[in-house]
Amino acid sequence: MNDELVLYGNPRSRAQMVHFLLEELGIPYRLVVIDFEKGESRQADYLAINPMGKVPAIVHRGVTVTETGAIIAYLADAFPEKGLAPAIGDPQRGTWLRWMFFGAGVIEPAILDTMLKRPDAPRTTAGYGSYADVLDTLDTMLDPGPWILGERFSAADVYVGAELVWAAMFGVPDIADHPRIAAYIERIRDRPAFRMTAGV
Ligand SMILES: N[C@@H](CCC(=O)N[C@@H](CS)C(=O)NCC(=O)O)C(=O)O
To answer: What atom of ligand 1 comes closest to residue 54's alpha carbon?
Structure first.
């Protein structure tokens, strides 16, 4: 079996979040840059990896994984000795999965809809309720902090944390009104692996 780990992405994309995780894990990998300007995400050889034509994607041990949250969860589990995912059977696993899925299914659409100023869907129908609900809930996620699992930094911080850093950089509103979230964003930005992969 080919054990090589290949990440397809580029620094100005969600692939940065996976790159951030790889540096936190400190494992060997090969980065293949997919250049959007050259149309590489829509070329046949890349569509064979991800038919969505989206990055990030990884290939590891002959298996392709796409979707940022799934890749981050997969890699944290694939290298358990690095301690970035609570083991199956550990009650903290429930908290970890909760916020990993919150990152993909709640934070991401809430941020995008807010950035694009899309009209609000009815609160009971929208999976994220309202943007204000999401911020209030993130506040509870960080109580007591400093990380999602308390004193333990994990892959959930890589995913949710990077989403929030990017949201703040793109000027998503009201984050400054939540000092706990603002301080968390600074903690993520200060991590050497984040700085190195985001070029900040
Ligand atoms: N649901 C995907 C979204 C990935 C995504 O939209 N990636 C963007 C860059 S951030 C992309 O590849 N855009 C290039 C294109 O659509 O051609 C995930 O969470 O990984």
So the answer is: 12
Q: What percent of the chain has pLDDT over 70?
A: 99
User: In this structure, which CATH number among 3.40.1190.10, 3.30.930.10, 3.40.50.11260, 3.40.30.10 belongs to the domain 5-82?
Assistant: 3.40.30.10
Residue 176: which pLDDT band, with cuts at 50, 70 and 90?
confident
CATH architecture of the domain with range 92-198: Up-down Bundle (1.20)
Cα 2 to Cα 62, 82, 87, 93, 166, distances in angstroms: 7, 21, 25, 29, 34
Centre of ligand 1 to C-alpha 68, Å, is 9
Question: By percentage, how much of the chain surpasses pLDDT 90?
Answer: 94
By most ligand atoms within 8 Å of CB, the mutation choice from 14, 21, 50 for ligand 1 is 14
Q: How far is the CA of 89 from the centre of ligand 1 (A)?
A: 32
The region that residue 190 occupies, defined by phi over 0 for left and psi between -120 and 50 for alpha, beta otherwise, is: alpha
Give the residues surrounding ligand 1 with Cβ less than 6 Å away. 13-14, 36, 41-42, 53-56, 67-68
